[in-house]
Design brief:
The structure holds two protein chains of two kinds. By secondary structure, chain A is of the alpha+beta class. Chain A has helices spanning 2-16, 24-30, 35-46, 50-68, 73-79, 85-96, 100-104, 120-126, 155-171, 236-251, and strands spanning 135-139, 142-151, 181-187, 196-203, 215-219, 222-230, 259-264, 272-278. By secondary structure, chain B is an alpha+beta fold. Chain B has a single domain, classed as Multidrug-efflux Transporter 1 Regulator Bmrr, Chain A, CATH 3.20.80.10. In chain B, strands 1-6-8-7-3-4-2-5 form an eight-stranded antiparallel β-sheet, covered by helices on one side. Chain B starts with a strand and ends with a strand. The relative contact order of chain B is 0.23. The chains are: A alpha+beta, B alpha+beta. The interface between A and B is medium-sized, with 23 and 21 residues.
Chain lengths: 283, 167
């Protein structure tokens, strides 16, 4: 716990100095750790090296300014301590796959791809145990039917409300067995603006007629990378941050579809659920 | 934690080297990070070449060096070298790199059990500030012998940390 708090304090220091020429040695000093011990402890707790975290956060804030302000690209680059525009462009392309000028011209760069600052809640979530280790496993084919909504507010609140609605509908379905339940978070990048959709659905048989009020979605036989989310729905964004900003950049795995698939346990009291992504070239 | 102060003659080491941040994959005391992987490579190499190495290696002692470069404070990246003391250079196999450490004065700290996994570098800095010794801050050496029982038995282990002092 002492280390978690110290690393959270070091993140405060980093965040306050994203535009300053800070060093990893200064981060270590800020929490009275030696450089070596700090480097090891920071990596252990955040799953990023201190320098990697600093650079990713600088790039995320620079990208935000590129997308949402009219400031000159070169000014943004210098502000975030890149020595010249070329270094900035290279680092930007490596992380986001596009040039800063393309981001400025409105190329799709979803806010979710910009690494948020890690909070003490993130650190506690990451250090609950080894459950976030990814497992490669097949998923589907699945025929899902349920209710979809626009995510235009707090994701955990929307998920909880939607499932309450869906459970009421399912209660009248007249089948004794509890169906397998899936939630799919869909990044609808082809819509104007940044839009996420959420589908709360159950698995239905091929032959079962679907109520016209429901939407139907098929998950083909695919290779999925599965994580276990432990904790309440309110903590789900912490798991998603880990998948998008820590695990995915390191693994190099690309999403086959911009979906996050939750698979709920049959026992509602179980606070663990599977959270999967579909890996590219497997669909 | 009181050290011994020693004068060490030139040290010739042969082994494997890595430059970067070795905790990219894992910060734990584990074999999953670059330091752990290098130890595994080193162990496997020594086991496979026992006969060859017996002619040039000081037996039963291994060293882990951390060498600080000009970029180290900025990026946290440094060099890690894992190897044995070589009695002569001419017989060192091509697969191994050689590291020559010039004669130096060292403070030797003996670390026991949980001290090994603690922030002992910080304790050493505090010791230097208290006693007026000047740390060279160029590198450090961890010397492993039969008192070190393995990562899974750190609590029962002992190792010596050699910290170079300014002349």
């Amino acid at each position: 716990m002492l280390d978690l708090e110290a690393i959270a304090r070091s993140i405060d220091f980093i965040e306050a100095n994203l535009r300053q020429p800070i060093t990893v040695a200064e981060m270590a000093d800020a929490v009275s750790y030696s450089l070596f011990h700090f480097s090891r402890t920071f990596s252990q707790i955040t799953h990023h090296t201190p320098y990697d975290y600093l650079m990713r956060r600088r790039l995320a804030e620079a990208a935000r300014e590129l997308c949402y302000t009219r400031r000159q690209i070169i000014d943004i680059a210098f502000d975030y301590q890149f020595n010249n525009p070329e270094t900035f462009s290279r680092a930007f392309k490596r992380v986001y796959g596009i040039q800063p000028s393309q981001a400025r011209r409105g190329a799709n760069l979803a806010a979710r791809r910009l690494m948020p600052r890690l909070t003490l809640a993130h650190l506690e979530h990451l250090n609950k145990g080894p459950y976030l280790r990814p497992i490669l496993q097949p998923i589907g084919p699945l025929r899902l039917a349920g209710v979809m909504t626009l995510v235009d507010g707090d994701l955990p609140t929307i998920i909880t409300r939607l499932w309450e609605t869906v459970e009421r509908v399912f209660a009248h379905r007249g089948k004794a067995a509890q169906p397998d339940r899936y939630g799919i978070l869909i990044d609808a990048a082809d819509w104007d603006g940044e839009v996420d959709l959420y589908l709360a659905a159950i698995v239905v048989d091929e032959a079962e007629p679907i109520d016209p009020a429901w939407v139907e979605k098929h998950i083909p036989a695919s290779q999925a990378v599965r994580f276990i989310h432990k904790g309440p729905t309110a903590d789900l964004p912490l798991t998603l941050d880990f998948i998008y900003h820590t695990w995915q950049p390191r693994s190099g795995v690309q999403l086959a579809k911009p979906w996050i698939i939750e698979h709920y346990p049959a026992d509602p009291a179980n606070d663990e659920r599977d959270v999967s992504i579909l890996a590219e070239n497997t669909v | 934690m009181e050290p011994r102060i020693i004068e060490q003659s030139q040290l010739t080491l042969a082994g494997f080297s890595f430059y970067g941040n070795p905790f990219q994959v894992s910060g734990f005391w584990t074999e999953e990070n670059e330091i752990g992987r290098m130890w595994k490579r080193f162990g496997a190499y020594c086991a496979a070449n026992q006969k060859l190495l017996s002619a040039i290696a000081v037996q039963g002692i291994a060293h882990e060096l951390h060498i600080y470069h000009p970029d180290t404070p900025t990026t946290g990246e440094f060099e890690v070298f894992v190897g044995f003391e070589a009695t002569r250079i001419d017989g060192v196999p091509l697969e191994l790199s050689i590291k020559l450490l010039p004669p130096a004065r060292y403070a030797v700290f003996t670390l026991h059990g949980r001290q090994i996994a603690s922030d002992w570098s910080k304790m050493i800095q505090e010791w230097a500030a208290k006693t007026g010794h000047q740390l060279a801050n160029t590198h450090s050496i961890q010397r492993y012998d039969d008192r070190f029982k393995g990562l899974d038995r750190v609590d029962e282990s002992t190792l010596d940390a050699y910290i170079p002092l300014k002349a």
